[in-house]
Amino acid sequence: MAETLVLKGTMCAHTDMVTAIATPIDNSDIIVTSSRDNGGKDGVVLLWDLAEGKKLYSLEAGSVIHSVCFSPNRYWLCAATESSIRIWDLESKSVVEDLKVDLKAEAEKSDGAVGTGNKTKVIYCTSLNWSADGNTLFSGYTDGVIRVWVLLHRTHLSVEHILDGQHNHYTYHKHMHHNCSQYVDDKFHKTILRTGEKKCRRYDGGDVIS
């Protein structure tokens, strides 16, 4: 007999349209839903206990939410909102990252090659997904660009790649964080990781080359 889906039940707590649903890979009894609650002006995330069929608690995003996803190896929840990518630590219920795109910096580094090169247009993230190892966050935006964020140290994320369908841009950046700095070389498409132990490693496409 062919498998089929049947409606098991319903969960009601949102006051407006539900915009996204996510489930953690290690706990099938918990899901997260988002909606345009508060009169459609703000985004609200609800954490549910499926075993009990009830809402556990809510998180305010402060802006309309278009996508949500769990980190595969941290107790983090990410939400793509119309103002930023917001990341919560669910253990403390606190915001650990509020990622925003600097279009002016992107245009200066890529000479206008990314998107339309408009430094003042308004864009926002509409889709999110983590890599399997939890160190890379992929984000899709309304300007048709996929921005790839890498975890440099614990909770610090920075854009590494910008993919627009025609170009693969490596945005130059330098971050000093806990004795660690990272450089992305636009010309050679290499990443150099310098540690406080005076050791350097170069990466090309995810592979260590020196």
From TrEMBL:
Matching Pfam families: WD40
Segments annotated as WD repeats: 65-98, 126-149
GO MF annotations in UniProt: MAP-kinase scaffold activity; ribosome binding; structural constituent of ribosome; translation regulator activity
Listed GO CC annotations: cytosol; nucleus; ribonucleoprotein complex
BP terms from Gene Ontology: cellular response to abscisic acid stimulus; defense response to bacterium; positive regulation of signal transduction; ribosome biogenesis; root development; seed germination; shoot system development
InterPro entries membership: RACK1-like (IPR045223), WD40/YVTN_repeat-like_dom_sf (IPR015943), WD40_repeat_dom_sf (IPR036322), WD40_rpt (IPR001680)
Keyword vocabulary terms for this entry: Ribonucleoprotein, WD repeat
Family, similarity comment: Belongs to the WD repeat G protein beta family. Ribosomal protein RACK1 subfamily.
Name of the protein this chain belongs to: Uncharacterized protein
